[in-house]
Amino acid sequence: MNKLLLSTTVLALLAVPGTAEARKKPKPAPAPVAVVRVAPTDPVELYYFQHGEAPIWLRNDATRSAVGQLSSILRRSTIDGFAAGPALAADVDAALAAAVPGNVVATQASEVRISKAWVAYMQHLRTPPKGLVYGYDLLKPQSRPDQILLTTAASPDLRAAVTRLSDVNAIYRSLRDAALASGVTTADPQLLSNLERARALPAGGRFALVDSGNATLTMYENGQVVDRMKVIVGTGETQTPMIASIIHYAVLNPYWEVPPSLTKKIVAPGVLKGGDAYLKRNGYEVMSNWTNDATVVPAAEVKWAALAKDPGLVRVRQAPGPLNSLAGMKIPFPSGQDIFLHDTLDKSKFLKPDRHLSNGCVRLEDAQRFYRWLHGNSPAPTTKEADVLVKLPQGVPIYLTYLTQEQGADGRLASRGDPYGWDGRPDRQLAAATYTSPTRGAP
Asked: Gene3D superfamilies per the record (predicted)?
């Protein structure tokens, strides 16, 4: 009986917590506390958050040298019209000094500060000038912070990339360098206007450039000039706007849609004086409306005298032939501005020193030569049909701009007049781009 009582007591003690057996069992570890990082709202900080804080500038000695290059560029960036440049240069210098080796937190903070200065400068350089019309969104400069930083991070030589990207393109660099050579440190209104227009041009590749400032067309391949010709551009009243687009085809033997201003000025008086015979003699046709489905209507149905008040009431076009004002070729490109390149019958005007003579479109000195360049030296086919579309092997970007300054032979800045009065007046650039024409949407 006593043995049974003892055994029961021992078993009870073994079951009590805190006994020797119980103390041998390890206590369960506390559950880990999950640390959740919240994505930052600042776009530069978000870039680093999404890329594991991988550095761009503070990776090694070579990339650190690019920081010094960036600081130098920012100090002189008032010439670019970037007023915040000198202050950002000082912040970049301070950030580099604070990036103490071994101090991860300080280094990461410095990395972000440097990138914020770089992004601010790049966004300034990639802001298009007022009045520039894009025919395609893909031609717009990439200005999102993550896109800028991804491109920068992918550069095999960061120092060279900083210089190249800050140069923008060869035309921009030549203007800026000429200004610096002239002792200019802060852009005046004329220089600032020219730099703004120049920075919208591509850095390389194959493209055509129409400069309404000096009325020339320049052809580029791999960023280098391969050919140039004279053009005729808009007058001071009918200014050629700034456009960035892509040429996809040429039109042979095109109809010419007579601008309403010329219908009022030339065609209507001719009809009132010479009747239907005047229209036939000049190859003019009166169309029922401005759509692609328009039909030819008798001239007698038009109240020609009323065109003095509203020339847009009637659409007149000129059939292809020896009198057609577009001669044998039209080269359009999307823009919504009713602006295109074309051949011309009157070659004598290319001898004039001032070639601001058109209604806004661009007349080519040698349309066949430009066509051959577009089509890889293939001549334009012979055809008697009207409005024949010939597609290019590959689309060619075209830029219409307006420059009134250039780098002179002595390396200094040279001005060549301001026929449109745009320098220092972005509102006038914008007005040229928003001019509405009743012929918009015509074939």
From this structure: L,D-transpeptidase catalytic domain-like
Distance separating alpha carbons of residues 6 and 10, to the nearest angstrom: 6
Tell me the CB-side half-sphere exposure of residue 387, using CA atoms within 13 A. Answer: 9
Cα separation of 122 and 387, whole Å? 44
Nearest to 233 by CA among 398, 418, 357: 357
Each residue of 242-292: pLDDT tens digit? 999 999 999 999 999 988 878 888 898 999 899 889 999 999 999 988 888
Distance from C-alpha of 24 to C-alpha of 216, rounded to nearest angstrom: 93
Contacts of 24 (CB under 8 A, 6+ apart): none
* Closest of 240, 235, 236, 261 to residue 438, by C-alpha: 261
Task: Quick: pLDDT tens for 65-113.
Answer: 999 999 999 999 999 999 999 999 999 999 999 998 889 999 999 999 9
Which entry of 51, 248, 342, 375 is annotated as an active-site residue?
342
Residues in the chain, overall count: 443
Pairing of strands 243-252, 329-331: antiparallel
Look up 375 and say whether it is catalytic.
no
Helix (H, G, I), strand (E, B) or coil at 431: helix
The rounded Cα 67 to chain-centroid distance in angstroms is 27
Quote the CA–CA distance of 148 and 141 in Å, as a whole number. Answer: 10
* 361 included as an active-site residue: yes
Coil, strand or helix at 291: coil
Residues 6+ apart with CB under 8 A from 184: 79, 191, 413
pTM over 0.70: yes
